[in-house]
Design a protein that fits this description.
This protein has helices at residues 10-22, 26-29, 32-38, 55-63, and strands at residues 6-7, 39-46, 52-54, 70-82, 85-96, 99-100, 104-113, 116-126. The protein is of the alpha+beta class and 128 residues long. It has one domain (6-126): Nuclear Transport Factor 2, Chain: A (Roll), CATH 3.10.450.50. Strands 1, 2, 3, 4, 5, 6, 7 and 8 form an 8-stranded mixed beta sheet that branches. It is globular, with a radius of gyration of 14 Å.
Length: 128
Amino acid sequence: MSPGGHAAAPALAAELERLERALHSPQVRADPVRLGALLDADFHEIASSGRCVDRAAVLDALAQAGGPVVLEADDFAVWVLAEGLAQVRYRSRYHIDGQPQRWVWRSSLWRRHGAGWRMAFHQGTPAA
């Protein structure tokens, strides 16, 4: 079902999936400059835990996180909602000590800034 927009062109879908996956990368998660460049100034998240957090809290939490995170993600779909606004939907799960955790459905809103994109909102909802 369409969330009110239209499916993104293949090049845009690939670009936004690449950016979303970059946020899963241990190298990006550990680098506040690279991470900050991908999150909009007014970024907010509703985490799969149910907590609501802002950009500063996310940057702080990832800076203090332990070792690298292994994150598996698939079923990506990208929708253009308006000019310069797109939604990326997919599912993911963490692997902790080699053990896969529960699947979480994810939705991110990406806003275009000049020639690039930044995530403005993210929500994770545990899969049934």
